[in-house]
Design brief:
Layout lengths: L8 H10 L2 E7 L6 E7 L10 E4 L5 H13 L10 E5 L6 H4 L4 H4 L4 E5 L16 H14 L5 E6 L1 H12 L4 E7 L5 E2 H11 L4 H5 L4 H11 L8 H11 L3 H11 E2 L12 E7 L7 H11 L3 E6 L6 H4 L1 H18 L6
Parallel strand pairs: 4-5, 4-6, 6-7, 7-10, 8-9, 10-11
Antiparallel strand pairs: 1-2, 1-3, 2-5
Helix pairs in contact: 5-6
Protein name: AB hydrolase-1 domain-containing protein
Organism: Leersia perrieri
GO molecular function: catalytic activity
Length: 337
């Protein structure tokens, strides 16, 4: 029987290819750590010892449009465009999370959409499950792809990884956009969030095993109440919650004690782009974080949107995102040869 969640993926891949993106995997350490990316066609380094093409199933329409796409949707040779890295959250892989942003941004920017470790096509034999390890692997992969500077856009779990990237590698991360996330998941934030939501653990919320559990997650994550038939929920559980053991360990590796948590001094300009009705990390938490981060941080909220603001109201989200990208790139234009 056809999986109704998996079935639309060829269409998503087709649209990404029309936008000039291609899928590749990067060997991070030569020891089995691999990160999968959707990235600009033509941006793969000439020394391709650690980068491998991934060829999604090509439809007849895609094949017929391949030559046209290559000439019309990608940057001209020698033309440098600012890089934007879209880092996904916990409930879906990269292109599923950012399907309404990647193609839009690719018209003006070099867009990179990775799968974090244990999501999509990314994996590692390492036992390190910390956001810091995810950040270091992602930074290494980006450098191997020739990315020198970028704006990182992180959602939820990906926001925590993005903060780590910005803190440890300010030479690479020139600006930062974070949605529905925190700098670090402290004991107090974790306990308060779980109590407010009404669940006993992060795994109970973010790794549902039943249709009822998935419905509860979607209800909490969205402002509008969505309805899907149970088969859609079952199919989503089948394809989007793989690597359960490793992902449960990722959740355990998130929480740090209050006494060990610090607010880093970040040199980047930061946009906190929030769903006004976020029930997981509420707007009050975003306001507190803005004050902690200082004058280089700004907060913009999106009305009638919850945790999944980029999916519930993609046009509004994209407009705020594009305005910030235009602002930071006009202020600090990338030097071209």
């Amino acid at each position: 029987m056809v999986n109704l969640v998996e079935a639309p993926k060829p269409l998503v891949y087709f649209l990404l290819r029309r936008a000039g993106l291609r899928q590749h995997t990067v060997d991070v350490d030569g020891a089995g750590t691999v990160i999968s990316f959707w990235m600009p066609e033509g941006k793969v380094p000439k020394d391709r010892g650690t980068v491998r093409d991934v060829a999604p199933e090509v439809t007849a329409a895609d094949s017929g449009n391949q030559q046209k796409t290559s000439s019309s949707s990608t940057a001209k040779p020698g033309k440098e465009r600012p890089a934007v890295v879209l880092v996904h959250g916990f409930a879906a892989e990269g292109v599923v999370t950012w399907q309404f942003q990647a193609g839009v941004l690719a018209k003006q920017y070099d867009v990179y959409v990775p799968d974090l470790l244990y999501f999509g096509g990314s994996t590692s034999p390492s036992t390190d499950r910390s956001p810091g390890f995810q950040a270091e692997c992602l930074v290494t992969a980006l450098r191997k792809l020739g990315v020198e500077q970028c704006t990182v856009v992180g959602f939820s779990y990906g926001g925590m990884v993005s903060f780590k990237m910005a803190e440890s590698h300010p030479d690479l991360v020139s600006s930062l956009v974070v949605s529905g996330s925190v700098i670090a998941m402290t004991d107090s934030i974790s306990e308060a969030s779980l109590e407010r939501i009404g669940v006993k653990s992060s795994a109970e919320l973010l790794l549902p095993e039943t249709v009822k559990g998935l419905k509860a997650l979607l209800s909490i994550a969205t402002h509008r109440k969505l309805w899907f038939p149970d088969r859609i929920h079952r199919d989503y559980l089948e394809v989007m919650f793989t690597n359960r053991k490793e992902r449960a360990e990722l959740l355990e590796g998130l929480v740090v004690s209050n006494k060990d948590a610090t607010v880093p001094v970040l040199p980047q300009k930061i946009l906190l782009l929030w769903g006004e009705n976020d029930n997981i990390f509420n707007i009050e938490l975003a306001m507190t974080m803005k004050e902690q981060l200082g004058e280089k941080a700004m907060l913009q909220s999106i009305s009638k949107a919850g945790h999944l603001a980029h999916i519930e109201r993609p046009c509004v989200y994209n407009q705020h995102l594009k305005e910030f990208l235009a602002y930071v790139n006009a202020e600090s234009p990338k030097e071209t040869a």
